[in-house]
Fold this protein.
Amino acid sequence: MEIKELAEYSPVPLSEQMLVQLERDCELLLEWNEKINLTALRTRDDIYEKHFLDCLLPIALIGQNASVIDVGSGAGFPGVVFAIARPDLRVTLLEPIGKRVRYLQQLVSELKLNNVTVIQGRAEDVVKTERETFDVAVARAVAGLPVLSELCAPFIRVGGMFLAMKGPQGSEEVKAAEHAFKVLGLNAAEIHAAALPGGEIRNNISAMKVSHTPAQYPRNYGQIKKKPL
């Protein structure tokens, strides 16, 4: 996929400036990937389709002027792509690993993304000062849905949205997360299925926050992983 094709497939319009920013994002990703592990993808074509377009697929689910936290942002997916394609959004990139944080800081600076904040830390620590302050919490390729929901839900205000970006197995994870969603104050999940041009299936899972998350959540990550809700 070429950059112009990305614009054709995108569910939201991409201006020339946005395409230039996405091209530079790809360049920096490939440069830094030689030094630190950011992605297994090695070509522009793959990055445009399997990272950028993948991140664009659920973007219309997010309301205007929303505050979004990208939990476990990694190389900036989906948070940086969201911030480029939707300048109205206020995006926080949360990433615990220092090398990736430095990459994100340079990326945000070079792309002049004034609507992005980068925070280094673990979700279960940062949430102590950012509890229920965001309209949307999103995560992509971080953990199974029961684990992911416990890390993300405490960040979301009542009336906000949890968005989990998943692959072909996403629909199966929904059943496993039903109890966790109820405990954490999320309503029943909706599955938004889509396919990339190459045929790969994507299941973007959304749920609204309908009540406050009990204060004991999230637990520390060891407990969450050992005994998911």
In short: The chain is about 40% helix and 20% strand. The longest strand covers residues 156-166. The mean pLDDT is 95. The radius of gyration is 17 Å.
